[in-house]
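[agent] plan:
  1. take the single chain provided in the ticket
  2. run structure prediction with default settings
  3. attach structure tokens to the ticket
  4. add a short note for the reviewer (M.T.)
[agent] executing step 1
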Amino acid sequence: MIKYITHLFYRYYSTGNTKDYSFFSALTAVLTVMFLTLLLLVTIVSAIFPNLRDFIIENGPRNKASEFVIALVLSSIGYFVLSRLIKEDEIRTFDAQAVTYRFGLPVVVVYVVVCFVIIGAVALKFFKH
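[agent] step 2 finished; step 3 output follows
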């Protein structure tokens, strides 16, 4: 599934100004979708379990610099792992039909929008201070 989504993003980024670094852009987009999914899961679980939410708030990063460093480290590790699991040659020669590309990318975009809506709704309902 990850290779399929990577292929969708690779085909999208392989045209226009981004064709020189389309594999990097595709991996970055997949990593962003994965982090968004993780954020969705953490938001829903912490809304269900208020003690977990309080634990995260109390023991989380204290300032923006530490949040930035944590995000940078997690992103770097995630990109390194993805780049080892998914090779550019595999994605370039991935066997996907044009029909799946035409419908696959909009599905990914709708998924991202729905994730943002759910995260926002859960955050507004359960994380009022």
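[agent] step 4 note for reviewer: The chain has six helices and no strands.
[agent] ticket updated
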